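[AMINO ACID CHAIN]
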Amino acid sequence: LTAALVYVALLQRRTMVAQRDLLERQYVATFRPQLKVRGIRIEEHGIPTIKYAITNQGGSPAIVIRHIVGLGLLHDGATLPLDQWPPLKQEWLEESENLIAKPTLAAGASMLFTGPAVEAAILVHMDNNRFKPTLPYLLGYVLYEDEAGVRRYTGFARLYNPRSKRFSPMDDPDYEYAD
């Protein structure tokens, strides 16, 4: 009789653990993390760097697996084609995923991140004997994982606005998105 009670208790424990795991996954699916990129700026203290905040606006924690940002130049009035983003080598992405610390952002938390060194000047190019202003833009993404192990992306594209002296979001769902 004692052995039967122990066996039943073990089955109940296994069932309760499975139910708890299912509830946790349902919670994460319902109140999943959602990352946003804000406050992008270029700081020039010796070597120029890109700094930005990543904020978790969702209801559960997110683990930042990788964050990548690149700088490009865009002629005034031009649109951003997909092939403007420089291709990244798969080996480099795999290395960066293994090397960076993987901070966890709790729901509502924000953290400052630093991107690669860049050239921060706004350039003017000569085009058909006319000056054509060229503005810097930033293009990047954040790869993150929720507590259930689901990986998601947040993409961002920001064009420098000389009037406000800040990087403003580009209104393009191909570049500004949250999975």
About this structure: The beta strands are 35-45, 47-56, 62-75, 104-105, 110-117, 124-127, 130-146, 151-161, 166-169, 177-178. DSSP finds two helices and ten strands in the chain. Confidence is low (pLDDT under 50) at residues 84-89, 117-129. The radius of gyration is 23 Å.
